[in-house]
Structure formats: structure tokens, C-alpha cells
Write a structure and sequence with these properties.
It is a single chain. The chain is built from 20 helices and 2 strands. By secondary structure, it is mainly alpha-helical. The protein has 2 domains: about 325 residues, Na+/H+ antiporter like fold (Up-down Bundle), CATH 1.20.1530; about 100 residues, no CATH class. Helix 7 packs parallel to helix 16.
Length: about 525
């Protein structure tokens, strides 16, 4: 019972920390990481553990599924050079640099273990970076690059990680033996993901119940990861390619009610997974520190500090030169392929990308997944050092970079022509035009009222110099005002006892959906 009470307390604490992070415009994983530090030194904390083989599937499969679903394939293709440079080049450079630093400071560390350490701390975290970017105005292309990097860098780092773990455990590694299997795994993953999406979509179109659809979504994420790993494919690439393929087709066959509920559930799940990951790794830090002698504590602190500095400096050294060399990546055509304020993002954008390298859930999950129960610490060679260093890298980058990224972006003043807003306005006019066309054959009074409303919006779009439709329909604000009055009246009837709760909840749901039909506003 104590463990249950403790978990409830941790979740409430996490909600409070996340609220504080939002108020400060900081990434909430930074505050969760600080909470994990506190748990490491808190007496009476229950000893929780997780099967290392479960860690990657539990934490990464749903996160990658969610991120892949929200990723624009078009924008990935248009920005493939800078994304590839970060997701492949920067990850490889960081892994190599960290491994070199680790061996320099700990000469007895096996090369394979040093490479694993580098792979663990190499990939920046999508959740941390995007939680900061949501509070600032950032050029669309720059945000696309950061999203694409955080989505794809996991594949490269986890591939290196798995090869390093295998080499450390077996004591044998051959590039000639691994390369063919690697290529087959990459190609197989990119084929298996879309094929699984084809089957999944045929099943999903028969499901109209929100709870069943959400269970299928999570089952697909976990099941696909487990199946891919079982046949030696890349779980990351398989899940990501599956999610991108599903995102292209699922919106057209998913009922709105299912989509709204599903989005809320997934957002909650990602938050809870972040909480759980930082709780589990914080739970391991205390016992690790207890096992260290004073001399080891100093040595481990030196290694951790050096690795934190290395991951930050390597990213800066990789990004800034590329940002001022036109053919490498950060300058070039914008998201629409034409001219615009973000056509040449320059050194300011490079500085923003260089400082957006916060580590988070992926690093924590990879550290937790290291095998336990053997020589050299706690199983895997120098496992204690790797776990402690990984946690320090997460804390250091999330706290230092995470809390300073927003002021940096504000000072850089990066702006663009809002290409997403332009596309939204233009596409809205196209969609409303299709709606008017669909109503042509209907001569009812209701259809006539709808036609008049859409025609008024299309008239504004025609008058706009770029053909953009306004954000809302003419009836949106009156609808919101009327629904607020209706809701107040229903509450009064309920409080007076003139209607029961069952009747109230039926009418409340009707008003909720009517209000959702109005164009959303930030203050609504």
C-alpha cells in the first residue's frame, strides 16, 4: 500500500513541477529531472526496478509513435540535409568524442563500454526541445529541423548502442559480420513499418469506439517494437515509418470523437512515461552513490562533468560551422522552396540549434536498459559510471540549456513569414469552397444558412491579397456566447434539483461538442 501512496504522491508532485515549468516557459522534463535528483536523496523511497529488456520498449515505442504521427513527411524530405547532418553526423561525432574522453579519463574502461556511453548520451530529446519551442515564435524550417533530428537520431544512436552492448557482452565484434545484417535491418524496417500500417488501417476502419481504438494504438506501438526487435530489425525505424504511414491515411477514416479523445490520452501517456523514467533512474542513483568510495565519487564526478561539457561543445562545433556554409544545411530554400525570411537562416539559427541539444527520455531509457548482474560494477562493464554519467548529462543539459534556451531565442529574434499560417489560411479557403460546392443540390433553409456563412468567409478570402480565409466562421463567437449561457442555465437547473445528474451529463456532452464545432481560440 505504501508503494501505491508513494506513486500517487510522485504523480501529484510531477503535475506541480510541470505547472511551474509552464509558468517559467521551461521544458517540464528539466523539472522532472530535478525531482529525480531529490528522490535519489530522499529517505524511505521504495526500491523500484524495471527489467532492462523492457525499458526501451516501454519508454521509446509510444514516444516515437506519437512523434512520428505528428511529423510532416514533406518537410522531412525538403530539409533532409540538415536533418541527416544532425541525426547521423552529430550523433556519430558525439559518440566518438564521448568515448575518447571516457577512455582518456578511465583507461581501464573497455572500448565497447565507452562507445555505449557515447551512444547513450548522444541523442537530444524531442519532448524537452519542443516544450521550449512551444513558448516561442520560431522559424518553421528551424522547428522542422529540430523535430526531424529528434525523431531520427534515436535510430542511429540506438544502433550504435546495441552493437556496443553486444560487443561488451560477447567480447567479439566484426564490422564485416555486422554490416550486411545492419543494411538488411534498415531496409527491412523501412518496409515492415508501412506494411504493418496497411494492415493496421484496415483493422482500424472497423473500430468506432474511442477506448478500443486507443488500446489498438498503444498495442500497435508496443507490439510493433517487440516484433521488430525479435526479428532483428530496428524498433525505432519500424515504429517511426509505421507512424508516418498511418498519419497519411488515418485522419480520413478516424471519427472526430475518437481523434479528440485519443490526442488527450497520448499527451497524458507521454507525460506519465517521462515521470516514470526519471523516477526509476533517480531510484538507481542513491544505491550507486552508496557503493562508491570517496575516491570513486571524485573520479565519477570528473568523468560526468567532462562528458556533459563534451556533448555540449561537440554539438556547438558541429552546428555553427554548418550554419554559415551554404551547401551544408542551414541556409537554402525555405519550406515552400521559395524566397522568404527563412530562406537563409544563418548564424542566429545555428546558435539556436546548437543550444537545443537537451538530453532526456531516450538517454534515461538507454541507461536503464543496460544489462545488470555481471562484472565491472552492476553487470555491464562500468554500468554504474554510465548510468550516473547519463543522469548528469540529462540534468546538466536540461537545466542549463533548457532554462536558458527561451531567453536565447527571444534575444536572437528569429522570425519567418509564418509559412504554416499562410498554408492554413489558403487551405481553409479551399476547404470552405468544397463545402459550398457540396451544398449546391440542397435547397433547404438550413443549407441556405450554411451557404451564406461560407460565402461570407470566401468573400473575405477573395478580398485578401494572398487569398487567405479568416480564422473563424461568422457564427463562431455568437455560438460560444450562446453556449456559455446555455451551460450556465443547465448548471442552475442541476443545482436547483430540477434535473438529475444523468440528464445533465447528456446535455453537457451535447454542449461540449457544439462548442468544439466553433473555431478554437487561445482564450476560449
Amino acid at each position: 500500500m505504501f508503494v501505491f501512496h508513494w506513486i500517487v504522491g510522485v504523480l501529484i508532485g510531477a503535475v506541480l513541477l510541470a505547472a511551474l515549468a509552464r509558468r517559467l516557459g521551461a521544458p517540464y522534463p528539466a523539472f522532472l529531472a530535478l525531482g529525480g535528483v531529490g528522490l535519489a536523496f530522499l529517505p524511505g523511497v521504495p526500491n523500484l526496478s524495471l527489467d532492462p529488456e523492457l525499458a526501451l520498449a516501454l519508454f521509446l515505442a509510444p514516444v516515437l509513435m506519437d512523434a512520428g504521427y505528428d511529423t510532416s513527411l514533406r518537410d522531412l524530405v525538403r530539409n533532409w540535409r540538415p536533418i541527416a547532418g544532425l541525426a547521423i553526423g552529430a550523433v556519430a561525432a558525439t559518440t566518438a568524442a564521448v568515448a575518447a574522453v571516457a577512455i582518456w579519463l578511465v583507461p581501464d574502461m573497455p572500448l565497447s563500454a565507452a562507445i555505449v556511453l557515447g551512444a547513450v548520451v548522444a541523442p537530444p530529446d524531442a519532448v524537452a526541445a519542443l516544450s521550449v519551442l512551444s513558448h516561442v515564435s520560431l522559424p518553421h524550417r528551424l522547428a522542422t529541423i529540430l523535430r526531424g533530428e529528434s525523431l531520427l537520431n534515436d535510430a542511429g544512436s540506438l544502433l550504435i548502442y546495441r552493437l556496443g552492448v553486444a560487443a561488451a557482452v560477447t567480447g567479439h565484434f566484426s564490422v564485416g559480420e555486422v554490416a550486411p545484417a545492419f543494411l538488411i535491418g534498415v531496409v527491412g524496417s523501412l518496409v515492415a513499418g508501412p506494411l504493418a500500417a496497411f494492415v493496421y488501417l484496415r483493422i482500424l476502419r472497423r473500430v468506432e469506439d474511442a477506448a478500443s481504438a486507443i488500446v489498438l494504438q498503444f498495442s500497435a506501438a508496443f507490439g510493433l517494437w517487440i516484433a521488430a526487435e525479435a526479428v532483428e530489425l530496428s524498433g525505432v525505424l519500424t515504429v517511426v515509418s509505421f507512424a508516418i504511414a498511418v498519419a497519411r491515411r488515418a485522419p480520413g477514416q478516424t471519427p472526430p470523437r475518437v481523434r479528440v479523445i485519443s490526442n488527450a490520452v497520448w499527451e497524458t501517456a507521454i507525460f506519465v512515461l517521462n515521470v516514470l523514467a526519471f523516477v526509476l533512474i533517480g531510484n538507481q542513483i542513491g544505491p550507486i552513490l552508496e557503493r562508491l568510495s570517496p575516491e570513486q565519487e571524485l573520479s565519477y564526478a570528473l568523468v560526468a562533468g567532462a562528458v556533459v561539457a563534451t556533448v555540449v561543445l561537440v554539438r556547438i562545433a558541429w552546428v555553427l560551422p554548418a550554419s554559415i556554409i551554404r551547401h551544408v544545411g542551414f541556409s537554402g530554400a525555405g519550406p515552400s522552396g521559395g524566397d522568404g525570411p527563412d530562406r537563409d537562416l544563418g548564424l542566429g539559427a545555428g546558435a539556436a540549434v546548437a543550444w537545443s541539444g537537451m538530453r532526456g527520455l531516450v538517454t534515461v531509457a538507454a541507461a536503464l536498459a543496460l544489462p545488470e548482474g555481471g562484472p565491472g560494477g552492476a553487470g555491464f562493464p562500468y554500468r554504474d559510471l554510465i548510468v550516473l554519467t547519463a543522469f548528469c548529462v540529462v540534468i546538466g543539459t536540461l537545466v542549463v540549456q533548457g532554462l536558458t534556451l527561451r531567453p536565447l531565442l527571444a534575444r536572437l529574434g528569429l522570425e519567418d513569414a509564418d509559412p504554416v499560417g499562410l498554408e492554413v489560411g489558403w487551405a481553409r479557403a479551399e476547404a470552405y469552397g468544397a463545402a459550398v460546392e457540396a451544398l449546391k443540390a440542397d435547397r433547404s433553409e438550413a443549407a441556405e444558412a450554411l451557404r451564406e456563412e461560407f460565402h461570407s468567409v470566401l468573400a473575405q478570402a477573395e478580398a485578401h491579397e494572398k487569398g487567405l480565409a479568416p480564422e473563424g466562421l461568422p457564427t463562431d463567437e455568437p455560438r460560444r456566447h450562446a453556449i456559455r449561457a446555455a451551460r450556465d442555465r443547465l448548471l442552475a437547473l442541476r443545482y436547483e434539483g430540477r434535473i438529475g445528474d444523468d440528464a445533465y451529463f447528456v446535455l453537457e456532452e451535447e454542449l461540449d461538442w457544439a462548442e468544439l464545432n466553433a473555431t478554437p481560440r487561445a482564450e476560449a
